[in-house]
Amino acid sequence: MLIGTDCEEARLNVVAAHDCLGMSGRLLTLSKSRYYVNHPRFVPNANVLVNFTKVWSGDLDLDRDEPDLQRLADVAGEVVHVLHEMDGRFNYEDHPRIERAVATFLPEKVEKVEKVENTCDSI
Questions:
Q1: Which helix (H) or strand (E) holds 15?
Q2: In terms of Cα–Cα distance, which of 85, 22, 12, 84 is closest to 51?
Q3: Cβ atoms within 10 Å, residue 71
Q4: How many domains, in total, are found in the chain?
Q5: Strand partners for 112
Q6: Residue 118 within a domain
């Protein structure tokens, strides 16, 4: 549980994420598998973490959203990780699997962005 200044910092990071990416829960398409065909860097139900704390979740298209994710890292002054849904929810809500990040953004530069695996087969 976050307390004191950690709680305030997390709240500010959530506000920054909403400013950069829009409201949490964003849905880019009703057909995730169809969208993925033309957008291979699509991450459905992504989790965005700042300083290891989830601040946003929703659909991301890294081709479109990469500049906004970088801006979030710059504004927060912290590392931003993008995780698949299953790596940051359910059994991993308290301990997200950062090592499986789809993309990691450092303030001022992009550290790594990899092609997203097709996770839409089961949708």
A1: helix 4-21
A2: 12
A3: 16
A4: 1
A5: 104
A6: no
Write the pLDDT tens digit of every residue in 6-59. Answer: 788 888 999 999 999 999 999 999 999 999 999 999 999 999 999 899 999 999
DSSP letter assigned to residue 111: E
Residue 43: which domain range?
4-113
What whole-number distance in Å separates Cα of residue 45 and Cα of residue 26?
8
Please classify residue 36 by burial: count the beta carbons closer than 10 Å to its beta carbon, then call 0-12 exposed, 13-18 middle and 19+ buried. buried
Domain annotation covers residue 121:
no
CA distance 60 to 41: 8
- Tokens 């931003």 sit on residue: 80
CA dihedral 73, 75, 76, 80 (to 10 degrees): -10
pTM comes to 0.81
